């Protein structure tokens, strides 16, 4: 089974621009969650989608948004980029039950200049 | 609010040594706890998941234990190898005042195994 796939692997953007990141979950997994990882704040939960509905949301500003498609693929969008948005963005998929393990992709490294 | 801590922040051991990594959480009403390893610049690799009703899980040289009442989990690595060098993170799902959907991560322990 293919793992979680995130594209692109690297992105360089300038302040004020917007960016869209993509995540394809493991086949059959209906839950996709997004995390931001920075050296200062560690891994922080952004949001989770299940069957195209946002099930939970972390404490990030409205500039961070996401969606999930009927094939469970997910995108996250960051608008009006700030320097502090530079981070590794990780996507994880899960089969759906409370006690299912999370499976992560290799992430997208976003650099904002 | 659920908080997760990991001690030590960094650990360096000679090859072959057995070692223990610690994870503590403040809210014991969790659904599960998962251990991951992360290699530099990469995503997280799932190692073990312990459900709230379980006390331990084993996979090869790894053994993870969970004591919900005290808010602690340990990851035991037997006969460490240089390939075990990575950052190890624990993550807790749920809590009394936390939606079961939320997963809170600890800051990680950076492990170096010296040949």
Short summary:
With 113 residues, chain A is mainly β. Chain A is built from no helices and 11 strands. In chain A, strand 9 and strand 10 form a beta hairpin.
What are its keywords?
heterodimer; A: 113 residues; mainly beta; seven-stranded mixed sheet; four-stranded antiparallel sheet; globular; B: 115 residues; six-stranded mixed sheet; five-stranded antiparallel sheet; 0% helix
Description:
The complex is a heterodimer of chains A (113) and B (115). Chain A is mainly beta. Chain A is 0% helix and 53% strand. Chain A contains no helices and eleven strands. Chain A has strands at 5-7, 10-13, 19-24, 31-38, 42-50, 53-57, 64-68, 74-78, 87-94, 103-104, 108-112. The radius of gyration of chain A is 13 Å and the shape is globular. With 115 residues, chain B is mainly β. In chain B, strands 2, 4, 5, 9, 10 and 11 form a six-stranded mixed beta sheet that branches. The mean pLDDT of chain B is 93. Chain A binds chain B through residues 4, 6, 33, 35, 42-45, 48, 55-56, 58, 88, 90, 92, 98-99, 101-107, 109, and chain B through 31-32, 34, 36, 41-46, 49, 51, 89, 91, 93-94, 99-108.
Would you identify the regions of chain B where 5 or more consecutive residues have pLDDT less than 50? Answer: none
> How are helices and strands ordered from N to C of chain A?
EEEEEEEEEEE
What structural class results from the helix and strand content of chain B? Answer: mainly beta
Counting copies of identical and different chains, the oligomeric state is: heterodimer
Give the biggest beta sheet of chain B: 6 strands, mixed
Query: What is the C-alpha radius of gyration of chain B, as a whole number of Å?
Result: 14 Å
Total helical segments of chain A: 0
Strand percentage of chain A: over 45%
Spatial shape of chain B:
globular
The main pleated sheet of chain A reads as: 7 strands, mixed
Q: Can you give the helix content of chain B as a percent range?
A: under 10%
First-residue to last-residue Cα separation of chain A? 37 Å
Main interface: chain pair and counts: A-B, 25 and 26 residues
């Amino acid at each position: 089974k293919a793992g979680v796939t995130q594209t692109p692997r690297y992105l360089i953007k300038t302040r004020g621009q917007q960016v869209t990141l993509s995540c394809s979950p493991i086949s059959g997994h209906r839950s996709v969650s997004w995390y931001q990882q920075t050296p200062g704040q560690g891994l922080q939960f952004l949001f989770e989608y299940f069957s195209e509905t946002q099930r939970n949301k972390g404490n990030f500003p409205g500039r961070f948004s996401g969606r999930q498609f009927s094939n469970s693929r997910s995108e996250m969008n960051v608008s009006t980029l700030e320097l502090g948005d530079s981070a590794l963005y990780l996507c994880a998929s899960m089969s759906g039950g409370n006690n299912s393990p999370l499976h992560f992709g290799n992430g997208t490294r976003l650099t904002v200049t | 609010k659920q908080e997760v801590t990991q001690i030590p922040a960094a650990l360096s051991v000679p090859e072959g040594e057995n070692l223990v990594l610690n994870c503590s959480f403040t809210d014991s009403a969790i659904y599960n706890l998962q251990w991951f390893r992360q290699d530099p610049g990469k995503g997280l690799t799932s190692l073990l998941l312990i459900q709230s009703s379980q006390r331990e899980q084993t996979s090869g040289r790894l053994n993870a234990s969970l004591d919900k009442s005290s808010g602690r989990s340990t990851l035991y690595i037997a006969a460490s190898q240089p390939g075990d060098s990575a950052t190890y993170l624990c993550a807790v799902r749920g809590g009394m005042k936390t939606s079961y959907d939320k997963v809170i991560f600890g800051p990680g322990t950076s492990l170096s195994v010296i040949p």
